[in-house]
Design a protein that fits this description.
about 475 residues, five-stranded parallel β-sheet, alpha/beta, seven-stranded mixed β-sheet, 13 helices, Enolase-like, domain 1
Length: about 475
């Protein structure tokens, strides 16, 4: 059986379902092929469930410090199973919302595993999709265009395979029925830091092992240093420049043991389990790419600015094309692809304008160039930091660690980058992202009146400080 659609989206994650909705809005007949549940990794194994647990961790940490606020709490304990149940409830509510949006926009959702076909009797070009249903039957869809949105999967450390018990990924961590007393987290990027923060707040002994010289290596060096300091303050052990020796891994009496080496020092590590958080790999295997001319680079699908592959009727978006691998990026890539398929000329996505967020405690958010990147590009820079300790709302919250750093171009006064670490900075970064899009200057940000008392005052003060005009420092 052959069904005809204008567009078939292979994968119903954030990028895929947003693309499908935009396609329907543009009058296109759209189908989404999804093996699991709509919402993909972000909704079911990533963004949403991890943030729900981080919220539980944040509240638990605040309650432990309740006496500071005049709140005496006795017999305080954390119930991981109830936190997991709440996490599942949040995910389910959002999942139902996506299902509603599919019906509202008259998008066909096909449950099954999709593979792209090469040129055949069904289509003179590559791009038809064979859908293998759970009942063993199959169906071929012949669209005018296909969007690959198959996402990514946790990357395993060579020689240290996931077993779901002693060596786990973030996927398995989201289904723990009990808390370990100790954990080794391999990888100090956003995922590793978020889990380290969460486990530490739950009372778990945490060790981060990062092969690079610092954690959060994609962030400004000042941000990395502050996060390292604050994690250590919370009794998290942070080993940087340390390589894991996978051959040393063993399980003894229900605990894991492994060696890490940094310079001439060997670290013998022991814990209840190991969480590997070294990134995610594009999901390109067994989706039919071998039947096409589509090119891969470092395992990711190569696309142009309109998300088109070398096959002119096949597009790809989201984690599967590498890049920033963020849900909000995938969503906008999906919109661009659908606009192009509809015959429009969408503006290319400027990745430098996209905010990056890490949701530990404290949060980290940034946009634009780091200080090192700006100098590497030859900019003469001017920069300043402003501490949350001078912000009344931060003191009211009892969360005054961290700062906002603003980097400007000394010659043109243009804004080059904004880097934040502190309370709720993932909500504050959008103002900086808009300023970056508009080529604003630190002067313009600083002279935007920020209401008092708010956390956003830190950005205004940091922007003023770039020219030495901060009021409260």
């Amino acid at each position: 059986m052959v069904d005809s659609y204008d567009v078939v989206v292979l994968g119903g994650g954030t990028g895929g379902y947003v693309a499908a909705i935009r396609g329907a809005q543009l009058g296109l007949h759209v189908a989404v092929v999804e093996q699991g549940k709509l919402g993909g990794t972000c909704l079911h194994q990533g963004c949403i469930p991890s943030k729900a647990l981080l919220r539980s961790a944040e509240l638990y940490a605040a309650m432990k410090d309740g006496a500071t606020f005049g709140i005496e709490v006795s017999d305080l304990h954390f119930d991981i199973q109830k936190a997991m149940a709440r996490k599942d409830q949040v995910v389910t509510q959002l999942y139902k919302g996506i299902e509603f949006l599919m019906k509202k926009n008259k998008i066909t959702v096909m449950q099954g595993y999709g593979r792209i076909m090469g040129p055949s009797i069904f289509s003179p070009m590559a791009g038809a999709v064979r859908v293998e249903r759970p009942d063993g039957d199959s169906e071929i869809i012949s669209p005018k265009a296909t969007i690959i949105a198959t996402g990514s999967q946790p990357r395993a450390l060579p020689g240290l395979s996931f077993d779901g018990q002693f060596v786990i990924s973030s996927d398995e961590a989201l289904t723990l029925s009990s808390l370990p007393s100790s954990v080794i987290i391999i990888g100090g990027g956003a995922i590793g830091v978020e889990w380290a923060s969460m486990f530490a707040d739950f009372g778990v002994q945490v060790t981060i092992v990062e092969a690079l010289p610092r954690i959060l290596v994609q962030e400004d060096e000042d941000i990395s240093a502050e996060m390292t300091r604050l994690l250590k303050k919370r009794k998290v052990t942070v080993l940087t420049g340390a390589a894991i020796d996978a051959t040393s891994y063993r399980v003894e009496d229900g605990h894991v043991a492994i060696m890490a080496k940094s310079d001439a020092t060997e670290h013998s590590l022991n814990a209840d389990l190991i969480l590997v958080a070294i990134g995610r790999s594009p999901r390109t295997e067994d989706i039919g790419l071998e039947a096409t001319q589509i090119q891969l680079e470092r395992g990711a699908i190569v696309v142009d600015q309109q998300m088109r592959t070398i096959e002119k009727n096949i597009y790809a978006i989201g984690d599967v094309i590498g890049g920033m691998q963020l849900a909000h990026v995938a969503a906008h890539e999906g919109i661009i692809a659908m606009e192009a398929i509809a015959g429009n000329t969408p503006e290319p996505l400027i990745y430098a304008n996209i905010a990056r967020c890490t949701y530990g405690r404290p949060e980290v958010a940034s946009v634009g160039l780091t200080e090192a990147q700006a100098k590497e590009k030859g900019y003469a820079i001017k920069s300043a930091k402003f501490s949350f300790k001078a912000i009344g709302k931060a003191l009211v919250y009892g969360e005054a660690d961290g700062f906002v750093k603003v980097i400007g171009d000394k010659e043109t006064n243009d804004l080059l980058g904004v880097h934040m670490i502190g309370p709720h900075v993932t909500d504050l970064i959008s103002e900086a992202a808009l300023a970056h899009v508009l080529d604003a200057t630190p002067f313009e940000i600083g002279h935007t009146i920020h209401p008092h008392p708010t956390l956003s005052e830190a950005l205004g003060e940091a922007a003023l400080a770039v020219d030495g005009n901060a009021i409260h420092s």
